[in-house]
Amino acid sequence: MDHSYEEIRKAAIEILAGREEEHYTNNQYNHFRENIAKVLRKWQDDRITDNNEPFSFSKQDDLYVQEVFWDLFRQGIITLGSKHSPGQGYPWFRLSSYGKKVLDDEDPYFFHDLSSYENIILAAIPDIDELTLFYLKEAMQTFMVGCYLSSSVMLGVALEYSLNNLYQVIEGNADYKDHFSKVSEEKTLLRRYNKFKNKLKEIQRVLPSEIKEDLDTNLDMIVSLIRNYRNESGHPSGKVLNREQCYVNLQLFIPCCKKIYELKEFFSQVT
């Protein structure tokens, strides 16, 4: 039976994180492959107790194991060389210091499946609205099955919806609605956001310190996310992202959306 890329990646992550038992010393590719096979077999039928019974990968499984291995290498989770001989090359490998930090949950925006992505979102933005969360989960689900254009569209919808909610909150604020009145006159998502960003910078001195922290960085990230979704004229960009860029965008959305919610809270309370 073939397994999906995500199933194999999840098994690999659980092994590297020490949450699943290593049946072989996990320091070279073939051992890693066999450990993944054992974990997949265990998950497939937890009634099997003889862990020495042979387990065979399909040809597609083997291809996915290779992809997962090199994806983890490119992402810096693993590095080549053993603990005792760092100068060795492939097939020897080890968990990198960055990878250990990530798998110990010290990287707040690392995820490997839908549930971990949702948990990270809710931890960062506890009051996120249900519709935005729905769009984000759709973005993650389509990412998992390799539909990267669909994932970027769903992420863009979530971003557009969140920004429109922010603008509506500001329109209801007697102190600032006139200052931001020109924002609604812009016809496209990107132009509207750029107008908002410029107007926000004009009053940046009155913003609380926690909002000003990393504000410029997150504003620039939001512009980048919009450009992946819409072009300057407001039409869908049609830009097809690769897996790595799509994964990065799913990560970047979280701190951007958190900043949007911080701004919503500020403008809903200011009198």
TrEMBL record:
Name by which UniProt lists this protein: Uncharacterized protein
